Amino acid sequence: MSAFDFVIIGGGSAGCVLANRLSASGEYSVCLLEAGREGKSSPLISMPFGIIGLMNSSLYNWQFQGELEPSQNNRSHYCPRGKALGGSSAINAMLYIRGHKTDYDNWTPPGNSEWTFDDLLPYFKRSMNQERGTSEFHGIGGPVNVCDAPYRHPLAERFILASLEAGHSYNNDFNGAEQNGMGWYQLTMQGGERCSAARGYLFPIEDRKNLTVISQAYATRILLDGKRAAGVAYEHAGQMQTVTAKKEVVLSAGAVQSPQLLMLSGIGDPAELEKHNIPLTHKLPGVGKNLQEHADTVIVQRRKKHDSISLNPLRLVMQAGELWKYWRDRTGLLSMPPVEAGGFMKSDPSLDKPDLQLQCIPALFDDHGRDYRLMMGWGYSVHINLLRPKSRGELTLRSADPKDPPKIQFNMMSHPDDIATMVKGVRMVREIFAAPAFAEHNGEEVFPGTHRQSDEELVEFIREKGGHIYHPACTCKMGEGEEAVVDYRLRVHGMENLRVVDISILPELIGGNTNAPAIAIGEKASDMILADAEAPEVVQTDLFTEPAEMA
After folding, report:
1. Which of 344, 363, 391, 449 is most buried (CB neighbours < 10 A)?
2. Burial per residue of 441-456, b for 16 or more beta-carbon CB atoms within 10 angstroms, e otherwise
3. pLDDT digit string (tens) for 364-373?
4. Which fold has domain 150-184+295-386+415-465?
């Protein structure tokens, strides 16, 4: 077939949901195009500990590189993104986090009950199989398995104990009634293996006759008939192919590649397209703007006791039996993701919700886990994530070549409030490191280093070493006004039969990991798409108004 009712570009967290739900009734034909490989048989993807290898795998990781950041000493940030069915859910740390309930309050105007937390909660519950059982906040029977870690590292337990000694509260469920506190993360795993969106939603339904999945299909542009999306051009096996959509083209390529593909198709800011001699099809200046990301700083502490994860050759020999444990029954150290423990805290007690997230790694960790020499030592690290950044970046084209990666300008820490909050976070984590549960066997502080104590010195450290935690979002903003790209039903403003369904539609970044929200967005969007398909007389209400100077 070369014509389908729905063509989905991108088999990531939201794309896998759409492929499943839109094809479920058997009434509609669905084609899913994924630029990456299938990834179904890769042990790096299925084994939780394999994330260390995935950080360096060009086979399953796009390995984007950001532009130089003036606010961070002109450094460029590495930006890993999933390149396989399941998207970034195939290479992430598997943390299941929804954010704070109030994060969703500003997605829609007051009185618009479309995207509040209460609207999305049924979709969060529908998407999951909570191994703890059903409750007000959790569901069972859904495609994505959510569970407690099958293996808990002793140093992760010490982190939680040290946090309590430092005055933080214990939280047994970060996705329950309260987000604040420290504890164990729940994970998207099943039977000691990763449960990506592909494993949950796609692989079990591969034999549906009305679903066609094409991996290694690199979309190059959306085919347009005037203002109507008519299909997709893509490269597969070295040949250019086209596929047409009788009802809709749904763009689910993620916060980096969804805006890129819109611009390559002539949809975006006229000034940006003109730079690359791309003919303008539709003026939409917000495409690629409003980029938001959780800035990150890692505090690294050496340990005198040799009880952490280490790449020390002797340690690796001693732990050779872990391979047997994992092969035999999917247990032991290799069934552990790099982050099991952490939590949420307020940099100021007067805040109404946490503004910092901690992720504890029972190993010495730097450069996205690519500094293997450091990891040969003994110690532990804690990521500090800035949950509600005020800094804004943008995504633009490098060229008109679809294979050329886009320019990612994060602009992280460009707002003074962001770096001031991170300084507070560093001090709070130092208090945890100084608590009795850790202090007895502490060695030297690697980063920031004990020579850095003043606010000015910590600012210097953050500008030298700060990074991000792999949650780029908001580049195809939902809403109204100049920067909005899609309306509240995720239809591209001013276009027909074209939607964006992925984490790029967020107006504001949520306070936590973005995989669970991406899946919920896919769930809700699938209901919207099916409702519109069954009621074709519904006319799109375009809420976008071009500024006078661009009209």
Report:
1. 344
2. bbeebbbbeeebeeee
3. 999 998 899 9
4. Cholesterol Oxidase; domain 2 (3.30.410)
